[in-house]
Amino acid sequence: MTLTGSGSAYDPPAGAAPRRPAAPSPAGEHGPPRRLDRRVALVTGASSGIGAATARRFAMDGWQLLLTGRDRHRLERTASGTSAVVLPADLAAPDGPRLLAQSALHRTGRVDVLVAGAGIGWAGPFAAMPHTDIDRVLTLDLNATLHLVREVLPSMIAAGQGRVVLIGSIAGCVGVREEAVYSAAKAALAAFSEALRQELRGTGVGVTLVVPGPVDTAFFARRGKPYDRSHPRKVSPGRVAGAVWDAVREDRDQVYVPAWLALPDRLRALAPGVFRRLLNRFG
Q: Do strands 64-67 and 40-43 pair parallel, antiparallel, or not at all (unpaired)?
């Protein structure tokens, strides 16, 4: 394995040709030996919800899957019936993204698609939000995602192909009351996706931002407050997974789930006064 001062598990030293990591696999890693004859997708948050549904959708088309999350037993349930490799990891840990990328590249030699779906929420007035929860949401929803992309991206650039899929949220487009920090993290992901897409022009590597509305998962229970709005209605994790799959297959830069959620985002740009009045009433 080649390391630089940045700590990346893939960066070659200046003047050297990129090469695959050759370090032994981390302790406790299990699964089939490295395979280079199948496309590889690394899916975070794969123990449940959108991540698990996305993993199953890619498995249907014969992809080699690398599934990560904190709960090994849930990951193994997602992997059941497939050839997926389970790589439990805590992305919020200081070295979590680097160690995961190192393990993933060691196991398969490449990552063709990274689906960054891990995330948490918190609901309530911002003035009452504990400082520790501010840090938790930003660490997992934003910082860990950026660090993981940073670790995986050089191998994609070296291969001249690949796609980074970021799971955003309509909350990052319009802002949602009592979800200020979550909205901020998802808005930052949206800006990051656009900036990174411009940087990667001509490299063969694409960036997709998937923007779902509320999704029918355990996300709301885990954040401590149920979803109590009548609109927009919750969509299934499978519907979001299908949008991820279509975006990768069609090289799409941004998709909304459902598609009509693009309208509020466009209204904000075209008629900000009208947008704000509607947001004050319904947001």
A: parallel
pLDDT at residue 218 in the model: 58
Range with the poorest average pLDDT among 48-57, 114-123, 201-210, 231-240: 231-240
As a whole number of angstroms, the distance between CA 8 and CA 111 comes to: 15
- Alpha carbon separation from 25 to 34, 120, 281 (Å, rounded): 11, 29, 54
| Mean pLDDT of the region 126-130 | 96
Burial code (b: 16+ CB inside 10 Å, e: under 16) for 81-95 equals: ebebbbbbbbbbeee
Q: Is 182 marked active-site?
A: yes
Residue whose entry in the numeric block shows the structure tokens 């490299």: 203
Q: All domains of the chain, ordered by start, with CATH?
A: 40-282 (3.40.50.720)
For 216, counting Cβ atoms within 10 Å of its Cβ (0-12 exposed, 13-18 middle, 19+ buried), the class is middle
Question: Of 10, 182, 227, 256, which residue is the catalytic one?
Answer: 182
Please check the confidence at residue 89 and state whether its pLDDT lies above 70.
yes
